[in-house]
Amino acid sequence: MPICELYHDNFQNYKCYGIPHAQLVIVDIPYNIGADAYASNPVWYNGGDNKNGESKLAKKNFFNTDGRFKIAEYMHFCSKLLVKEPKERNKAPAMIVFCAFEQMQEIAEWGKKYGFMESYPLFFVKNYSAQGLKANMRIVGAAEFAVVLYRDKLPKFNGGGHMVYNWFEWRRDSGKEYPKIHPTQKPVNLLRRLIEIFTDPGDVVIDPCAGSGSTLRAAYECGRDSYGFEVDRNFYALAKEKMLDFSQEQMTLEQIATRKKQRKCNP
User: Fold this and answer.
1) Which of 179, 157, 211 is closest to 26 using CA atoms?
2) pTM for the full model?
3) What whole-number distance in Å separates Cα of residue 143 and Cα of residue 27?
4) What is the mean pLDDT of each run of 10 residues along the chain (267 residues)?
């Protein structure tokens, strides 16, 4: 069975756990939105109506660390999580950083300072928007963004013989299958697709800011070993209890393979 370990700790302490280096690091960093996290969302008001006054989410952060996350500090530590640059082609590691649109250039620039000399953007297209309060005022946001960072050689690529575009459909996970734990939780089905593209079975995936544990769940379902770190006690507990409790589901590798086939995990 794939290894799946989530630690209630800061990623800076990764050396304490003796985890192996990763073929792929996937991270959803805080967007540093701060108290404006729900500014365009109807949940800012009770019942979604400003006539009812502000809700308890008004002027609240998504989570405690949002607003004070340091990209430079992240790069300093997490650039060391990947395997060494191989001599062979199609074996190089990569890092995927989900971020705000405004952070993309900064991430690419900091990446170069820590050895990631190359990068390219990814775009994720939704069929819905959380910016309901601005629907009558402007075009609303319905996309998410990420940056793929790599050192020199192009990262490992499993395209299945098909051209893979730099935009992906963003489909919400079924609530019956995956719990909603984190306000910025990424869909397991999407993370699974990225893991399939950039890694092989048996490779290691690391998520330094694991949140809901959805990256680890996706890696497990794809037969990859995974390790994650989460500093928030509540998110950690919920991820362990609900997202990563595989014993409750009694998932076998055969069941995982069946799920992958049904969901067309491979192109």
Assistant:
1) 211
2) 0.82
3) 17
4) 95 95 96 50 55 56 59 93 95 96 94 97 93 78 96 96 96 93 94 98 96 97 97 95 77 52 49
